[in-house]
Specification:
This protein is an alpha+beta fold and 502 residues long. It contains 15 helices and 22 strands. It has an 8-stranded antiparallel beta sheet with strand order 18-15-17-16-20-21-19-22. Strands 8-9-13-11-12 form a 5-stranded antiparallel beta sheet. Helix 14 crosses helix 15.
Length: 502
Amino acid sequence: MNLHTPSRRAVLGTVGAAATVIGWNATTGSWAFAAGTARRTGDRVVPVPGLDGTLTTDTSQFGSYSHDFGRLVTGTVPWAVLTPGSVQDIAVMIRYARANKLKLAVSGRSGTGGDLESHSCYGQAAVPGGIAVDARGMARILSTGSASITVEAGATFAEITDHLLLRGRTLPALPDYLPLSVGGTLSVGGIGLTMGTEGLIADTVKSLVVVTGTGEVVTTSPSRQPELFRTALAGGGQVGVIVQVTLRTVPAAERATVFSLFYDNVAAFMKDSEVLLADHRFQMQGGEMVRRPDDSGWRYKIEAVATYSGGRIPDRARLLRDLKDLRAEALIEDYALRDYLFRLDGFEAYLKDAGHWAQPKPWLSLFLPHSSAARFLRMVEGELAPDDLGAGVLLSYPYLTSNVTAPMAVQPDGRVGYLFDLLRFPHPGTSAADIDRMMQQNRWLYDRAVAMGAKRYIVGAVPNLTTDDWRRHFGTSYKTLGKAKQRFDPGNVLTPGQGFFG
């Protein structure tokens, strides 16, 4: 390893830091500073390498790193934060971390305004006592081709969407919440209302640049270093840091007609959802379990989106043909496409103003097999009280499992799966005991879903997961991921918070 004399720019923390770090004291297991820290004779200090960006070690500046979006796992302050000025910065610091037995993980710094943070929900991106990488240090849009776009991994889908819409293009698959970083989203797969037609966002990736756990910078694709490509996508950050992504793009429509169709029971909802899925008559399709207007129980809603341009307004009667289980209630609204894609902006503002955003968020995301989806959803109807959601939502809708090609995003058996996405935003003032009850409810639901053949979407919060739980989750892919971990991260440096291997 080639360690350079540290430059002042490379190692200064933020203004006001008490001292400048000069290296890692391998003897004491702490950072060594230029002044103010006594060192014993014989202490081995490994100099910090020269960087194009900055390595900040003033932990008083790390408040937003002491938790993630879920705010269920706290006290995760890293020893240092790297804001990379280049891909080589990440490679150099991975090698440095490996040589000094430190851990490293990327924080996507997703969100808006002053609320940037890791959007993991249960400490998946935490690296207490290690090195966090601020993804916003690598957030440029690098190039835009006729049918693709290449971006750095810290760029958000909001930034990419606005860039592409100006050029009459968009991504074929997008998350519902656009201020998420590309790299963080791809590391778990990426879900959205185009699952029925496109699969996960990870399934739209053409190529990646990944820095492995040995510090090697690798360009990878389905035909070039395919083992790395297949395990970096939806692999939970175990084999490398995604630093650059090339994604497919498609022509963008101008407007979106949104159909909200309401159902009294899960059987009718599923029947019509699958009619729409079968012929892809809508460009986006979602679903939701919602309270009845009189608050007497739960009902279901299909959200189906037809996009169009110019005067080619969709034929609404044709789009709703064959929906024999649709009763009386349907709401149809028309939006500019951008307004619809950014539809959660107003909801986010409301959640922040009302105090829900800063609450602990016990989320649970699953892929259900078709064979048990109705049974599981009926069980949830009986288990879930309105206050268990707070201001949140419970999404559920069908997709074709064959569209999910990223092998680490393991799928339930069967041609059709159902997403189950319990996105709780507890009310302000919810007690710690109630949050703990919700967490235990997540575990209860998870165990019953797994017994019915379900798989996890690896965000959310399921307490007390063991290595055996992860082995069962991944199935035959567990051995594949383990071999890739040994090959690409033999020092076990990367993303310890996932806990896949104990």
